[in-house]
Amino acid sequence: MSAPNPTINGTLAGAPVVAQILEPSPGAILRRRIFGHVGLVLGGAFLVLIIAMALLAPFLAPHDPLDQELSRKLIPPIWHDSPKATWEHPLGTDLFGRDYFSRLIYGSQISLLIGFAAMLISGVIGTTLGVLAGYFGGRVDMVVNFIITTRLSMPVVLVALAVVSLIGNSLWIVIWVLGLLIWDRFAVVMRSSTQQMRNLDYVAAAQALGCSTFRIIVTEIMPNILNNLIVVATVEMAHAILLEAALSFLGLGVQPPAPSWGLMIAEGKGFMFFQPWLIGIPGAALFILILSINLLGDGVRDVTAPENQN
User: Helix, strand or coil for residue 75?
Assistant: First the structure.
């Protein structure tokens, strides 16, 4: 009789390990892709920090962002070699004596609110038009193409400036104006993606089984164009934030004394050669927020569609 195989830690020597037999689970593969994508990790981490800063603003801000006191105006940040610099105002104060750190924290609320709300409004409009045009084709496609062409013929910034100057420039007016103006990219991308999907076998099978048009679009078309929708949504969210900053910089966006980052840049532009941190700090915050959103969108698309990575 042959001697029994020796065991190591309770397993037969030479026997294959379970991990070598079983393939990784879909969840393990997804986690590996997520944490292996540097852009996704960095973008998601910075965006989570900014969102947390916006949500916890009442607890993080050391001062009221609207509190003015001219006796403490233009205090430099703590990294400046100046006797006026103090940890009570780590990022200094503006020309009205308002704490810059507190205004920066509360400004993240305005940027995120405008970006998300405008993206949601434009996404609903553009996705609906694009999917209908791509799925039905024919006259529906011609009408939607005409609407898209008409919209593309109008410069967004000029139209937004004209509308805001005529109607008013409150926060919600800015949100609706931007949401109703930046839906064209959603429509173009969703139309093209839907045209690619409508002739595939599983869509034809659903049609042959008698599924309703609504069910086919929701269950067969939308899940397969979700990756493109995510990328466009992040791009448009960043676009809306930049447009709001531009409008506020020109004086037709969020009005003072609200702590908008674009408005902070506008208020500090007259001191850019003497106190450059007045525009550098909100400008850097805008840059980090836009970059984080774009990195997150591209990373999510790469992770969920790895076969299309460059």
Answer: coil
